[in-house]
Amino acid sequence: MFLPRKPRGVRFSRTASLAAGVATAAAQIAGTAALLYSGTLAAAPARTLWRALPVAVVLQAIAAETAPENARRTQSWMARVYVGVLTAALTAAVYLAYVLMGAPPVSHVAETAALSAHTALLVVYPLLATYGVDARAWAAAGAGPVPASAAGAVAGAWLGAVPIPLDWDRPWQQWPVPVVAGAVVGAAVGRVAALVRM
After folding, report:
1. Angle at 143 between CA 13 and CA 117, to 5 degrees
2. d(Cα 162, Cα 105) in Å, to the nearest integer?
3. Position 51 in a domain
């Protein structure tokens, strides 16, 4: 989003893509761990997630820009804004998916909305930034780092919900702390695993 546009035909090398992918994944995990260990995420999840969103936007923009699938694609500034607006609009669909899968529909609206924004940023934004809205590009997506990161985020969020109903009475078990941590770790693991496999 805020990165300079690549000239046409310029490719990031495999090593540069791997280094950028590992660096952004490590930054996301480190940021989430810092929020968990400081207690701010468990004390005020909605406020903390909304405050962490700009940093997550920058990290996702870097990850999407340096993805190997995005190597030959150049986007104008307006196209990047369009992807951001479309991601923000699809946050409502992610919110609805969370409610349909069991999120508290009335009592934790702010927390679920913040979680939905982070999940849309982890899942929707990289896919739209890389493949756009072209159906042929989505059909040929394959198993690169961007789809693997999105799948990892979804699987991580789902697995992150497992400890919530357990009666350990830990502050990190409250909604949506383990789900957002699982989504971030899942996205990072998916991205790095796919980059290493390339």
Report:
1. 90
2. 19
3. yes
Q: How many domains would you assign to the chain? A: 1
Residue-wise pLDDT for 112-148, tens only, equals 999 999 999 999 998 888 888 877 887 777 777 888 8
Looking at beta carbons, which pairs linking 168-176 to residues 24 or more positions away fall under 8 Å? 171/39, 171/42, 171/43, 172/36, 172/41, 172/42, 174/42, 174/45, 175/45, 175/103, 175/104, 175/108, 175/111, 175/112, 176/45, 176/49, 176/103, 176/108, 176/111, 176/112, 176/114, 176/115
* Residue 7 domain flag: no
Give the angle subtended at the CA of 133 by the CAs of 132 and 139, to the nearest 5°: 90
- Cis peptide bond prior to 45, omega within 30° of 0: no
Residue 107 is given by DSSP the state: T
Which structure tokens are listed for 66?
């340096």
d(CA 131, CA 127): 6
User: In terms of residue numbers, what domain contains 41?
Assistant: 14-197
Query: Would you place residue 85 in the very low, low, confident or very high pLDDT band (cuts 50, 70, 90)?
Result: very high
pTM of the model: 0.83
Q: Is residue 29 part of a domain?
A: yes
For residue 157, tell me if it sits in a domain. yes
